[in-house]
Design brief:
alpha/beta; four-stranded antiparallel β-sheet; 18% strand; disordered N terminus
Length: 563
């Protein structure tokens, strides 16, 4: 309880400072860039394989959050959570089949908030998840000043567009193409970049500040990308995941059987057994090669956007934020795709470029973001500007972007916030831009969750409809541990039964950074539950798990001292 009080007091203190500070600043434009299924496979996050020069250049003039986590590792729930700053248990969106304004509450979104403060707000590509989850309108007109733009060529993403060895077209996972031979001679992210550039040019000389959100579809599957990017990753230089096998003590409920990958024509030909059957190693290498190539292709589109800011003289007045909806497993734990609570699925890049804060303003004629073509300039080196290592969450993005742009950050939500239109369940991270991080903060914790229809992997385990959810996996990530409980869940009442524990996971990250050695003990958990029986029934799952982790970690430290 003391921890929660401290965090709440700090957050309220930041809000008392906000009005005075905001009054002295002019408002910044915002370029908000979202990738799809992008894990932290970037040079600026320490990946030595990837070629991501434009994002690395952005990071060199930004503050990056090394340990940022999504609240659910699937598109619609994560995007809705981030853009409303409400956790999935508040949006009540765990699948793709409901619109939060109707289903849970009329929550204000980040672009809607900017629009209400006089910003001209624009959406290009995949920002909200399209379809029912955003009312078939990308939440227009609530969130956007003009209708959202979607690239026309996206309609071909799920069609047979990939030429196989037989010379026929297939709906493959691996789909590197000659762009000139694609319909319209283009691809979705190329179209989105062109539209975003056009919009930037249309706003360059306008006195009204803008909020432009650009959502790239890659590296989401299928890997329908320009074929030349494969040349950056010779197959003979690719390696398998360091932990490609299913951990022996992984609870079956925790495993995601990557059904969307299995449905692709080229994967079906492999005749892989369900649910654990491994993908042949040579095909694993090809998947990893194509994923990295897709990242480099997306990086080039980011570079086009950033260089346009330079050309238009907007780099000194526009804040750039870049992130992803969640990560993507590349064979770790014998898993592919997202749909889990592991770091590889929940951890995302989070990069903030704030002119005059993360970097000095440029001298006249000096370029901030010159475009770097990885296909020509394969070698580049950038040093990260400022790195925050403590845990943060995507629900923190809305209040932080608002404050740094010159607006008041939304106030913290009350315990029950279904009737509250504007508030945040995250933290305003603005203080991290002005103060040096003082090492590890054990109080900084991120929460993620994932639903399952049963204790064992099924065809719908990766993405169950709400009515089929029987178990909710709540996962806590701290500096030293990842702790997950799979609890009984009622999809009709949205209630979780904290005493109905189907399975648990506990990983000590110092010796097990890949989260492969589950040390969770049923008997130890029973003792702990008995000791915590006096907790009020209104205590949240997050609070309970915090206290449980404190108990478990204290016990392990005591055990090590005795040993």
């Amino acid at each position: 309880m003391f921890i929660c009080v401290r965090m709440r007091l700090l957050f309220l203190f930041l809000h008392t400072l906000a009005p005075a500070v905001v009054a002295r600043r002019e408002r910044r434009n915002v370029l908000f860039i979202m990738a799809d299924d992008l894990r932290t496979s970037l040079g600026c996050y320490g990946d030595s394989v990837v070629k991501s020069p434009n994002i690395d250049q952005l990071a060199s003039k930004s503050q990056i959050f090394l340990n940022a986590y999504a609240q659910q590792a699937v598109c619609a729930p994560s995007r809705t959570s981030m853009l409303t700053s409400r956790r999935p248990d508040t949006t009540r969106l765990y699948d793709f089949n409901s619109y939060w304004r109707v289903h849970s509450g009329n929550y204000t979104t980040m672009p809607q908030y900017f629009k209400s403060k006089g910003y001209f707000t624009m959406s290009v590509g995949k920002v909200f998840h399209p379809g029912i989850a955003s009312n078939h309108s990308d939440d227009y007109p609530y969130s956007w000043s003009i209708p959202a733009y979607h690239p026309a060529s996206f309609r071909y993403e799920k069609e047979k567009m990939c030429k196989g060895e037989d010379g026929q077209l297939h709906a493959n996972l691996l789909c590197a193409v000659n762009v000139t031979q694609q319909p319209g001679g283009t691809l979705p992210d190329l179209e989105s970049t062109g539209e975003a550039v056009r919009l930037l040019k249309s706003r360059a000389n306008d006195n009204v500040p803008f909020f432009l959100a650009v959502g790239f579809h890659k590296p989401h599957i299928p890997f329908r990308i320009p074929q030349e990017y494969l040349s950056l990753y010779p197959i003979e230089q690719m390696t398998l995941a360091p932990d490609p096998n299913v951990p022996t003590l992984l609870p079956p409920v925790a495993y995601n059987p990557w059904t969307d990958v299995r449905r692709r024509d080229d994967v079906q030909k492999l005749n892989i057994s369900f649910p654990y059957g491994p993908i042949p190693k040579d095909f694993q290498l090809c998947i990893r090669q194509h994923y990295y190539a897709a990242v480099s292709y997306m990086d080039a589109q980011v570079g086009r956007l950033l260089s346009t800011l330079d050309e238009l003289g907007l780099a000194d007045s526009t804040m750039v934020v870049m992130s992803s909806d969640h990560g993507w497993s590349l064979g770790e734990h014998g898993e592919w795709a997202k749909y889990s609570n592991f770091d590889v699925s929940t951890r995302v890049p989070l990069i903030f470029y704030v002119p005059g804060v993360t970097t000095r303003r440029n001298r006249l004629g000096e370029s901030t973001f010159p475009f770097i073509d990885a296909l020509i300039q394969s070698e580049h080196s950038f040093k990260d500007n400022k790195v925050i290592r403590n845990m943060v969450e995507l629900v923190d993005v809305f209040p932080t972007v608002s404050y740094l742009a010159g607006l008041r950050a939304p106030k913290p939500c009350p315990d029950m916030s279904f009737q509250t239109q504007l508030c945040t369940e995250g933290d305003n991270l603005a203080y991290t831009f002005r103060h040096r991080e003082r090492g590890e903060d054990e109080e900084d914790i991120s929460f993620s969750q994932y639903p399952r229809p049963a204790e064992t992997p099924q065809v719908n385990s990766d993405l169950p409809d709400l009515k089929d959810i029987k178990i909710m996996g709540y996962s806590l990530r701290s500096w030293d541990y990842r702790y997950t409980l799979w609890l009984g869940f009622n999809p009709q009442t949205f209630q979780v039964n904290v005493s109905d524990v189907h399975a648990g996971e506990l990983y000590m990250l110092a010796g097990d950074p890949g989260q492969d050695k589950n040390i969770y003990s049923d008997s130890q958990h029973s003792v702990m539950m008995t000791k915590m029986a006096s907790l009020p029934h209104t205590a949240s799952v997050q609070m309970r798990m915090r206290l449980q982790l404190l108990y478990l970690s204290a016990g392990m430290k005591t055990g090590r001292r005795k040993a």
